[in-house]
Amino acid sequence: MFSKDRWDEILEALSANKFRTFLTAFGVFWGIAILVLLLALTNGLKNGVTADFGNFATNSMFIWSQQTSISYKGMPKGRTFNYKLGDVEALKAQIPELKYVSPRLQLGGFNGANNVTRGTKTGAFQVNGDYPEYIKQEPMDITNGRFISYSDINVNRKSCVIGTDVVKGLYDKGENPLGTYIKINGVNFMVVGTFKPSNSDGDQEEEANTIFVPFTSFGQAFNSGDNVGWMALTGVDGKSITDIKPKIFEILKLRHKIHPDDDRAIGNFDLSEAFGRVNGLFSILGFVGYFVGSLVLMSGIIGISNIMLIVVKERTKEIGVRRALGATPWTIKSQILQESLLLTICSGMVGISFAAGVIWIMNYILDNSGPVENFANPSVSMSVVFTALIILVVSGLLAGLIPANSATKMKPVDALRID
């Protein structure tokens, strides 16, 4: 029940020594601010590092062929081999846990020689021969037209989808690329769509300089036959690609007469495994943030408890008078606890507000100065704020508990004797 007199007493007690109250409150303010800022900075690092994964399905892996390191069935060590479209079909047929198997052929590159022309304009761009499902593994924003389709695949249609920087390099401002033709290594391809990368990490510029063409058209135009440069594989939901990996390797080794123990012949990058390691690292950093922040906050709580003990000591005679007039032990205890809670929560809320202001400033600077490597969008979720509030309430109760118990143990007669 609200009592104005009680709150007037609490405020009067806390304002009796303003400087002491300020120093005590500052400990809690600084502790909770450090806790929130540490968690925000950890989240900023996590956002920056995980941005390197782009929007590619994190339950995915890439595989490519390398030289064999063990001789096998009359085949020499150091032998090279190529994946084939038959390998793709075998993986799809024999491993139902695979959601997508996307073969790719590739030529050119952002730093390579000029390989694409349109009229008098030329450019060096990366050209990928892909299947339609690749856009489900690495989402991109189709800004105009469409992505490659199975109708393109089935009839070897020479169509292409070009990135925003390809448009800038080969077309005049305001010119619509759809329906026009570009030459890739001397072969005409019709533009059926344009796209921009949907992520904003460091690879965005390279992706915007990319051209996608149907896999079959690529093979026909550039004489690669049924060879496959590399594959992107994604596991079904709920099944880690890392768990499927041994079966994938087993099938490919069998099909290409590779020794079962030759782990160097099949190059691979397990995005799921790498993503799991990153998440594990930042889970640890998050724990460290809570631990360090809580220790700093604890020092502030200890300060409040010490000050409340001093306040109780100074008010010994007042407490004795109140006890003599009929105040119950719980009445005395509740007032001490309320004072401790008020001091803790108010200073803690100011600390949370201060931390929120610092986070806003950091994001403002990042938005205006451009992306910083491995650091992006430092922030905390509402669950962190609610956790901080719970910590404040519990801390305030703990800080006032010992002084409150000390106050109720005084006998009214003994308290009244103190001058």
From TrEMBL:
Gene Ontology, cellular component aspect: plasma membrane
Protein family membership: Belongs to the ABC-4 integral membrane protein family.
Localization of this protein: Cell membrane
Domain MacB-like periplasmic core: 21-244
Membrane topology: Multi-pass membrane protein
Keywords carried by this UniProt record: Cell membrane, Membrane, Transmembrane, Transmembrane helix
Originating species: Formosa agariphila (strain DSM 15362 / KCTC 12365 / LMG 23005 / KMM 3901 / M-2Alg 35-1)
Chain ranges passing through the membrane: 21-41, 287-312, 341-362, 382-402
Protein name: ABC transporter, permease protein
A Pfam family this chain is assigned to: FtsX
Residue span, ABC3 transporter permease C-terminal domain: 291-412
GO molecular function: transmembrane transporter activity
InterPro entries in alphabetical order: ABC3_permease_C, MacB_PCD, Macrolide_Exporter_MacB
